From TrEMBL:
Keyword Hydrolase: yes
UniProt protein name: Dihydroorotase
One Gene Ontology molecular-function label: dihydroorotase activity
UniProt entry keywords in alphabetical sequence: Hydrolase
E.C. number(s) listed in UniProt: 3.5.2.3
Domain Amidohydrolase-related: 54-347
InterPro entries listed in its UniProt record: Amidohydro-rel, Deacetylase_Atu3266-like, Metal-dep_hydrolase_composite, Metal_Hydrolase
Keyword Hydrolase: yes
Positions of transmembrane segments: none
Length: 379
């Protein structure tokens, strides 16, 4: 089969294959077709010289809010993905069973970039999140809608990858673990993983982790005190290590209030890397402190996480969390998505959610995006 597109001469870093080598990547019929030196181009093949750039599998941002126009926190997925090198944006609970149909029809289906979703167990998802109105949807238990959540998740398995719930003082008030228990029941019913948000107690980090199952995701995993995974002595809490041992996944979900350099330094110093790096991008953090996915990746690179591990946490690890092994890889037969990256040298200022600044010497930048085997951005 002739190639539709060849990326020529880039440094391919594909953690799914433990590959780090200068080689070509060929795409055909919307999929990765071949990897190798000097792949043969036909007259109709588009050839892009990407020498000097990094070619990674299409970046997956596991935690975004892209129900633009449907919720006040939603941002435009295509604009964000163009700037951030993201080929799969995973919306985490913007919509619930009461408004997922609108999200699907008006945002997901017209989008040129892939949008998958965790469905919120609350009827209207995260509906009261703005700079003027902040209402925790899990605080009002009358909004918990497990019956319809199970039905909508079952009817939309092509797009819905799991169930979302937010617990913590800001998200669930004094409801404690009740919303989490309801969401877990839905996830169990439909056979999907759960993603749990955590903010200030109640409930505690320990209480939430104790209830998560293998394959479930704790997002905001490197958040600042209170509800941090690190002890005052800079070690990793025992319950965190036990949860990872049984298969619970730890996601960054940077956002407006959920990532601290102090926590990250402690966790990385103990060899505890996040399973997935995600931005939790929304209207209140797109202009800082999160900015985008590549900025979040840059922070981990500057804190000493090796580049292949940073890429793995944004590609193959996220694909495994989603149970979509066709994503996050450049193996032949995989979905034909790729991200072109550079690592710029210089002096760069990074900030976390509590206002601490980090001066880094490197910055990950998006230089191009391939979606479905076609060059998408920049034109």
């Amino acid at each position: 089969m002739p190639f539709d597109l060849i990326l020529r001469g880039g440094r391919v870093i594909d953690p799914s294959q433990k590959l780090d080598a200068v080689t070509d990547v060929g795409f055909a019929a919307g999929k990765v077709a071949a990897l190798g030196r000097e792949l043969q181009a036909d007259p109709a093949t588009e050839v892009r010289d990407v020498s000097g750039l990094i070619v990674s599998p299409g970046i997956i941002d596991l935690h975004t809010h892209v129900y633009w126009g449907g919720t006040s926190l939603g941002i435009d997925a295509e604009e964000f993905c163009r700037n951030s090198g993201v080929t799969t944006s995973v919306d985490t609970g913007s919509a619930g069973p009461g408004n997922f149909a609108g999200f699907r029809k008006h945002v997901i289906e017209p989008s040129q970039v892939r949008i998958l979703a965790y469905l919120h167990v609350s009827h209207a998802g995260i509906f009261g999140f703005s700079d003027r109105v902040m209402v925790g949807e899990s605080e009002e238990l009358r909004l918990m809608n497990p019956i319809d959540a199970a039905r909508v998740a079952d009817e939309n398995r092509d797009l819905i990858v799991g169930i979302k719930v937010r617990v913590g003082l800001f998200a669930s008030g004094t409801s404690g673990l009740v919303p989490l228990e309801i969401a877990l029941e839905v996830a169990e019913q439909v056979g999907m993983p759960l993603m749990a948000h955590i903010d200030h107690p109640p409930p505690s980090y320990e209480e939430v982790l104790a209830r998560l199952r293998p394959g479930d995701v704790l997002t905001h995993a490197f958040r600042p005190f209170p509800n941090t995974p690190a002890t005052a002595q800079g070690t990793v809490k025992k319950v965190v290590l036990e949860a990872r041992e049984r298969g619970v996944l730890f996601d960054i979900g940077h956002g407006k209030g959920s990532f601290a350099f102090k926590t990250a330094r402690a966790m990385l110093a103990n060899g505890f890397y996040p399973d997935t790096i995600s931005s939790d991008i929304h209207q209140l953090c797109i202009d800082g402190p999160a900015f985008d996915q590549v900025t979040t990746m840059s922070k981990f690179l500057c804190m000493g996480m090796p580049l292949p591990d940073v890429i793995a946490a944004s590609t193959v690890n996220a694909a495994m969390a989603l149970r979509r092994p066709e994503l996050g890889s450049l193996k032949p037969g995989s979905v034909g998505d790729a991200t072109l990256l550079s690592v710029r040298q210089g002096t760069f200022d990074y900030v976390d959610v509590v206002g601490e600044h980090l001066t880094g010497d490197r910055k990950v930048a998006s230089e191009g995006v391939v979606i479905g085997g076609r060059w998408w951005h920049p034109r």
